[in-house]
Amino acid sequence: MPTTVLWLRRDLRLADHPALVEAHRAAGAGGEVVPLFCLDERLWGPAGANRRAFLVSCLRALDESIGRHLIVRTGDPLEVVAAVAAEVGATQVFAEWDFGPYGNERDEAVSRALEQRGRALVRAGSPYAVEPGAVLNGSGQPYKVFTPFSKAWLAHGWPSSIKAPAAVRWASGLATDELPEVAATATTLPEPGEAAAKRVARRFFDTDLAGYDEQRNAPGLDATSRLSPYLKWGCIHPRQLLQELGSSQAERTFRSELCWREFYADVLHHRPETVRHAFNPAMAAMEVDHRGTDGVFEAWCQGRTGYPIVDAGMRQLVGEGWVHNRVRMLTASFLVKDLHLDWTRGARFFMKHLVDGDLASNQHGWQWVAGTGTDASPYFRIFNPVTQGERFDRGGTYVRRWVPELAAVNDKYVHHPWDDPAGAPTAYPAPIVDHAEEREESLRRYAAVRGR
After folding, report:
1. Most Cβ neighbours (<10 Å): which of 81, 244, 277, 378?
2. How confident is the model at residue 261 (pLDDT cuts 50, 70, 90)?
3. What is the pTM assigned to this prediction?
């Protein structure tokens, strides 16, 4: 009977999985499907302990859901995928499209290697509702601004979510490598796997979605979906979330957030160099500090800047491997516009710790704050960490959770404890920079770029 290989990557689920459906169909009623995951050092090495640990746990959850038939092989996919196909006599290997810079290059190489052996890589589906490159403007060019992209994305639409195929015959008896044991640096990670993703989604839709439009910017409420780690590894597909959404303001807002993820994937697909370089070349000339900056960078990394909302965010990042999106913007703005450091330093640190670290979303989110990217926040928009804290963390619930040194500070001063008549807690550092002064310095540097 025919055997097919299902090469899993960022699609660790059974439902709404077009590549699985096609692999099952090609195998036929009596054929078998080999579920293969390749531990690729090119991706494993830079992932960071939290993302590695969550990935391994999601793979174990998937393995349990298919009766412990998952095949894990360690090595270069160029060699591993062809070797497994030859081992089982499969003429077709099925996989989702990968639109990332490395993933696209890797898949093309694997496809050529299979073709040389009389086999084929068949790609079906992707991690996105609308595949990168599918939406272009009236001139046939990719969008550079989110709002028109979002309108075209919504008009394009996406297919309905599909159920997991019934009665898949998973191949057995093949050698498999042991999944490595990984110690996360975060104290807790999300519950892994497809079933957990569905539970988290259900909780969000039933409990928090109605107030999402009003509450999503308040980090102390924990009112966001928390679905980003599951979307990262494909434990749930965005189509499964989009099909639940109606037309209320809160639902439109959440749909827009899902669209941002797809916009940034589209940007990276068309401009892969923007992983490290400014999308807007003019902004690459912005003066940044290099010498004598290790101390302030370490203070930022450790949550010891003296600005409570910034420090709470950095401690949440390290403690949970996740941080609230509003606070991601605040911490990024502080690094770029108060400390005058290059955005790529912060982006690397985030990718080191984030359990949901998605290259496109992370890099272009940082570029948005830094004013170097598509649809960028104007460089002169400089977040004030005190007023932002007072607006979005009124009373300091979030700050007190992550900066216990400030637990006893009066609500009025929790976001600027240096003004407390009782005195700032001795265990908490004084501000490492003066925000007002550094704001003026940022504007001076921006004016110099504009004048060129």
Report:
1. 81
2. very high
3. 0.96
